[in-house]
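To the wet lab folks,

You asked to see what we're planning to order before we commit. Fair enough. Below is the target structure as tokens, and below that is the sequence we designed to fit it. If anything looks off to you, flag it before the synthesis order goes out.
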């Protein structure tokens, strides 16, 4: 986790859940994460697999130069990445994993900007499949931030984290399978590809995608 707002949000979520797999939506106190509120969002399911923004912070709305409330989360992503995003969401809502994603955004003026996104399970009325607590933060804010809307975004790296170290490798296999041209799996289920370092961590590079090894939070 590179951005302070991401770390603040994750630490609060992790503290709030305690020994549970996910905290309740009603327990979330915005005043406890005021430093990260501008980058924070909540997604809600639309009686199906798609999720839309129920709430979206000012930093996030500025990046797209529009209000995001009610807009489908999947529509933000490039067509080729939407299946992988859907698989990540299922890992969050069904397996109680935390998904950490980096992506490169392209604006209306063809400017480029990198973002970090985190998705965490959130219970609502006892259900873990209808709400997601998330954060999305730009790695930097150039002078044109908020004036050039994001028009396209492509995943550059992803990581699934199980805070209690209860991994579900098949779910990561599903994510990798969404990138058949970029990703291959070894016969023993391990990642294969070009070794690389991403922000100091071991990773495998597959064209535009980097899969970071490991599932621990530290």
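Sequence we intend to order:
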């Amino acid at each position: 986790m590179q951005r302070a707002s991401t770390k603040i949000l994750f630490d609060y979520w992790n503290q709030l859940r305690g020994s549970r797999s996910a905290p309740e939506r009603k327990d979330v106190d915005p005043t406890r994460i005021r430093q990260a509120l501008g980058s924070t969002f909540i997604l809600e399911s639309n009686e199906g697999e798609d999720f839309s923004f129920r709430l979206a912070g000012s930093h996030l709305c500025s990046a797209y130069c529009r209000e995001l409330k009610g807009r489908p989360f999947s529509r933000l992503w490039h067509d080729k990445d939407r299946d992988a995003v859907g698989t990540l969401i299922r890992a969050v809502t069904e397996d109680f994993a935390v998904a950490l994603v980096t992506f490169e955004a392209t604006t209306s003026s063809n400017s480029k900007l990198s973002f970090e996104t985190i998705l965490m399970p959130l219970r609502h009325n006892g259900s873990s499949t209808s709400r997601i607590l998330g954060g999305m933060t730009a790695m930097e804010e150039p002078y044109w931030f908020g004036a050039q809307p994001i028009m396209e975004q492509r995943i550059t790296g992803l990581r699934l984290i199980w805070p209690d170290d209860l991994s579900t490798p098949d779910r990561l296999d599903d994510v990798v399978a969404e990138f058949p041209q970029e990703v291959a799996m070894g016969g023993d289920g391990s990642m294969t590809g070009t070794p690389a370092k991403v922000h100091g961590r071991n990773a495998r590079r597959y064209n535009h995608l980097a899969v970071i090894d490991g599932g621990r939070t530290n």
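Structural context that might help your review: Helices lie at 4-17, 58-64, 82-95, 169-177. Residues 14 and 163 are 8 Å apart (CA to CA).

Thanks,
Computational group
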